[in-house]
Automatic annotation (TrEMBL), chain A:
Residues 29-257 form the MacB-like periplasmic core domain. It comes from the Archaea. It comes from Natronocalculus amylovorans. The chain crosses the membrane at residues 30-54, 281-310, 330-359, 379-400. GO terms for biological process: lipoprotein localization to outer membrane. This is ABC transporter permease. Keywords: Cell membrane, Membrane, Transmembrane, Transmembrane helix. It is found in: Cell membrane.
UniProtKB/TrEMBL annotation, chain B:
The keyword ATP-binding applies. This is ABC transporter ATP-binding protein. Residues 9-256 form the ABC transporter domain. Residues 238-264 are annotated as: Disordered. It comes from Natronocalculus amylovorans. Residues 251-264 have a biased composition (Low complexity). One of its GO terms (cellular component) is plasma membrane. GO terms for molecular function: ATP binding; ATP hydrolysis activity; transmembrane transporter activity. Residues 238-250 have a biased composition (Polar residues). Keywords: ATP-binding, Nucleotide-binding, Transport.
Length: 411, 264
């Protein structure tokens, strides 16, 4: 009982000593806390970025409001066409056939092409253009009326109907060229084609620029195919299918897959995985960021506390020489690590959302993607826990090692 | 001291050698060079005795202090404290032994700058699990005894060198140790302050054996006995009656060498 009492008194006294030292060495304490805050931020923001890269991709698929994705062969970026490879041929016919299936509300082929674009026909930039079929009802319009009428140029696959020369552009493109609804832009797959094809802007839409993360113009698929020279094979990147509200995606997927076995039909999540698996660098980058974040947080915390302990080695040697036990010394340093870890962890966790918001603003300006850094509550809690646990463990280990040094070597 | 009372400290054929470097780059099997800091020293120290250790730098004073305090273990020979061979104690038990029996006054004080004078003095009592109120009372008593009753809440940075030294002395005495060792206790003080500190030291630690390692003749003057070392060997062991200040170390060595042998 008396030993327990003595132990309790020792515990309280050690904590008093911890706080005395933290209070006395305010600047050192402040620097240590800032270091832990940076470690937590490194961990949460890097992990949030890695997670966000995956999450953004998934949310972009979700926000596209499609249920199934039809592709022919692997979905990959193409140096030739820009955007995705257009490997799905006879897109109009295939999508029309798929539209007839039970549970399918519509099946829309999409093609992505790099095109030249100019507001005056003399200086051209390259952007990604998206080709859609029908009246473009799958596109959200924020300004203007959108496409008028149907895809007349397709003409049953003959591509000899009148071209409407209507396009939708996203707000960034409108700003870049200082144009709006009713103005015109030149666009084509080659400079010659662009110079001879003047399109009228009939609406402002951010639908595909948000999806692709780059300024985008949207035209009817058949007209885009014609100005890029891919109309002969009716090429598209994929067909997107929207289902009726009561349709079961897996049932429709199975039915379509049975009849169209030359294509791959995937749900949103499956399609994202397929895209991401083809983008090995993106996937490796995201995973590396998460792993690096964890290691960086650990290393920063451990180094910082080891440094603080090492600074005190002479004092620790002196009190050990006086008879203060190694256990008490390690407890004292563990207390330091715990206190600094808790303070740094809490502040780091508290400023993470604001830091993530600031990073997202920068990321949006640079990439056009919103919410690229996604910091989940779990990640923040993990950051806090790592700061506290690693702070305590690192200080304890460093203290244990220092306490094992012969006291006389330090005095 | 009754004649049959065993000494508090007894050192028998004490030798301490240090290995220089590891020489792994050259050869694992190569014999590593060693330096002998203490060479077969045999001395004993009684309870309440004040012993001065003198000798030039590198003579082995600090090494002998460390061995007597249980901070280090000898390469050969024994250090017995009240009948217990310190070499037989584990590291943990030696630490406990120091806490309960030994007070140390470091040359550079090693006070914790975050703590007040009272907090520093009370620090060893924390390890003993003593109540906070009792710790504060005991620390205050000792600070008053060394003339710092009005400075108990001051932190080391607010104290002069002499005051810090007195705090270090109070801290060394707070556990009522049976032995106090002090390495150059006046090394960083001016002559007048050093003399005051030594007077306090001796008056406060009446029943405690004190071992002082120093170059300073003023400090040695308070000792009951002076042990002189040179190159790790004991060259003189003279009682207070010998005139330290007037005879040089070498002549003193010669005059008392037979006495030192008799101590062994």
């Amino acid at each position: 009982m008396s030993r327990m009492l003595a132990g309790g008194r020792r515990f309280i006294a050690v904590w008093g000593l911890v706080f005395s030292q933290l209070r006395h060495h305010r600047f050192r304490t402040l620097l240590a806390i800032v270091g832990i805050v940076l470690a937590v931020l490194t961990m949460t923001l890097l992990a949030g970025t890695g997670y966000g890269v995956l999450e953004t991709g998934e949310s972009q698929f979700e926000s596209a409001d499609r249920d199934l994705w039809v592709t022919s062969g692997p979905v990959a970026l193409s140096a030739a066409s820009g955007g995705f490879e257009n490997t799905l041929y006879d897109a109009h016919v295939v999508s029309s056939e798929m539209s007839e299936y039970d549970g399918v509300r519509n099946a829309v082929p999409l093609g992505f092409h790099t095109v030249y674009v100019s507001d005056d026909g003399s200086e051209f930039d390259t952007i990604v253009a998206t080709g859609v079929t029908g009246s473009g009802s799958a596109v959200s319009i924020s300004e203007g009326e959108g496409f008028s009428g149907g895809d007349t140029h397709y003409a049953g696959g003959e591509y000899d109907g009148p071209m409407t020369h209507e396009i939708l552009i996203d707000p960034q493109l409108a700003d870049r060229y200082d144009v709006g609804v009713g103005d015109t832009l030149y666009m084509g797959g080659s400079l010659a084609a662009a110079e001879s094809n003047e399109f009228t802007i009939v609406g402002i839409s951010g639908t595909f620029s948000q999806f692709l993360g780059t300024p985008t113009a949207t035209a009817r698929l058949s007209e885009l195919q014609t100005v890029t020279g891919t109309e002969r094979v009716d090429a598209a990147t994929f067909i997107t299918i929207t289902l009726e509200d009561d349709a079961d995606p897996e049932v429709v997927q199975a039915a379509l897959q049975g009849d169209f076995d030359e294509y791959e039909i995937r749900t949103n999540a499956e399609q994202l995985n397929a895209v991401v698996q083809n983008q090995a660098l993106v996937l490796a980058g995201a995973v590396t960021l998460v792993v690096l974040a964890f290691i960086a947080g650990l290393a920063l915390t451990a180094n910082l506390l080891a440094l603080i302990v090492y600074q005190q080695r002479e004092t620790l040697a002196a009190i050990n020489a006086m008879g203060v036990s190694r256990g008490t010394i390690v407890s004292l340093l563990a207390g330091h690590g715990f206190a600094i870890g808790v303070l740094g962890g809490i502040i780091g966790a508290a400023v993470t959302p604001a830091a993530a918001a600031a990073l997202n603003r920068v990321a949006y300006e640079l990439t056009g993607f919103e919410g690229l850094v996604v910091v989940e509550t779990d990640v923040i809690i993990l950051g806090l826990v790592v700061a506290v646990v690693m702070g305590t463990v690192a200080a304890s280990v460093a203290g244990w090692r220092v306490s094992r040094l012969p006291a006389i070597d330090q005095l | 001291m009754p004649a049959d009372t065993p000494p508090l400290i007894e050192c028998q054929n004490l030798t301490r050698s240090y290995t220089l470097g590891t020489q792994r780059m050259l050869s694992r099997s190569a014999e590593r060079p060693t330096v002998t800091a203490l060479d077969t020293i045999s001395i004993s120290i009684d309870r309440g005795e004040v012993v001065g250790l003198s000798g030039p730098s590198g003579s082995g004073k600090s090494t002998l202090l460390h061995l007597i305090a249980g901070l280090d273990t000898p390469t050969s020979g024994t250090v017995t404290f009240d009948g217990t061979d310190l070499k037989t104690l584990s590291g943990r038990r030696r630490t406990k032994h120091r806490l309960e029996n030994v007070g140390i006054v470091f040359q550079h004080f090693h006070l914790l700058d975050a703590l007040s004078a009272r907090g520093n003095v009370a620090l060893p009592l924390v390890e003993l699990g003593i109540k906070k109120r009792d710790r504060r009372v005991r620390a205050k008593e000792l600070l008053e005894a060394v003339g710092l009753g009005d400075r108990i809440t001051h932190k080391p940075a607010q104290l002069s060198g002499g005051e810090q030294q007195r705090v270090a002395i109070a801290r060394a005495l707070v556990t009522n140790p049976r032995l106090v060792i002090a390495d150059e206790p006046t090394g960083e003080l001016d002559t007048e302050t050093g003399a005051q500190v030594l007077d306090r030291f001796k008056s406060v630690a009446e029943d405690t054996a004190i071992v002082l390692a120093t170059h300073d003749p003023e400090t040695l003057a308070i000792a009951d006995r002076v042990i002189s070392l040179r190159d790790g060997k004991l060259v003189a062991d003279t009682s207070k009656s010998a005139d330290i200040s007037e005879s040089g170390p070498r002549s003193q060595t010669e005059s008392v060498s037979s006495q030192s042998n008799s101590v062994q």
